[in-house]
Amino acid sequence: MAKSDQGYTQGAPARSGGGRPRYANKSQLTKAEVAKLYLRIQTEGILDMLGIEKNSDMAMEIKEGLGEQLEDGPRQTKKDLWDAAVEAQHGGGKQAYNNNAEATRRHYEAEVLIAALESSTKPRERGQLDDGDFLDDLASLMTDGSGWGEEQLGSKIYRKHVNICLDNSGSTHMPSTGYPSKAMAAVAQNLMEVLYEAAGRWPGVTWDMFSFNRVAKQHTGRRGRADRTELVRQALQEVTISDPLNRDAVETNLGPLMEALHDNEVERGLIGQPRLDIIITDGEFEGEDDAARAAEWQRQRGTGLNTYVLNICPDIPSDVALPHQFQVIPLHCNIGSELRKEVDGEALRQTLMRIVVDEMQNNI
After folding, report:
1. How many other C-beta atoms are found inside a 10 Å radius of the C-beta of residue 93?
2. 13: number of CA atoms within 13 Å, CB side?
3. In whole angstroms, what is the distance from residue 15 CA to residue 34 CA?
4. Which DSSP string do the residues of 243-254 spell out, in sequence order?
5. Strand pairing category for 160-167 and 275-281
6. What average pLDDT values come out for the chain (364 residues) when binned by 10 residues?
7. Does domain 160-360 match CATH 3.40.50?
């Protein structure tokens, strides 16, 4: 039994933001300069939301992607671009930050994820071509006198399944760990909505949601629907049942979670396919026997799999060393004093998105 897994209460955090444009008069600028200003403001807003370094490769990809969208989109006047820049910086942008900041940020995160997917498919697109297909317009080939063209890009094929797994043991509801359960649930919900938006353009991107303590529960797919139906049936029959969190939260077992992931993947035909596990936990696992059981189920899940364990409380000592198949990432995101701790949900969200974006660029 983990040290802090006895009893729990709940708590919560919050954030905000804003800004002003650098230029006050569009008449001082050419249309090209206004377009550059617009792209700078848009890029900086996205980088700030995602916590991405301004000189990183991902930042350059985002900037290039926005430039391509601007170039390929509807033709805009200098006034259109200026108004869009002002709105993004402090007009409608401020309204969005105040009224719908979460949705705005999720949209940007989905765009970054889509950019990662598209960049990862470029090498394979050229490899999937049929002889005789051309990239260039045949008429332009004749008129420019070259008579040569490149092969046409093949269809984009991408598959990756993401498992989001949240520790729901009693210790994640305790002040000693900073009440991380609420922050964990919030970042998981955010990631699911980002994946949902990305899957709209890339149907091969799929996901499932799990929670675990002594047992594991699936909250999506057929099993998730079955659990919800059973709860409704019990409520209609006025059956009194004990709170499963009270009963099961006294232990944190990884083995049942890996077994649940395996069974779901067998059912969905995902064994051997590219998969990504994100396990968010306070790191208080039960013992070596459970770790060995988890490793065995992980072996049965086959190849094409990366499993990350995000430990949000690495300072809490643990006697359990997870097997090598689990990539443990210590996150020092507990802020505040010993008397009043809380989890920095923003830091957790940014770490989560970086891992997912990196993994989507490296389809196994």
Report:
1. 22
2. 25
3. 31
4. -HHHHHTT---S
5. parallel
6. 53 39 60 79 70 72 72 74 70 44 75 80 51 41 39 59 93 84 88 90 91 91 77 64 72 94 95 94 90 96 94 86 92 76 86 90 66
7. yes
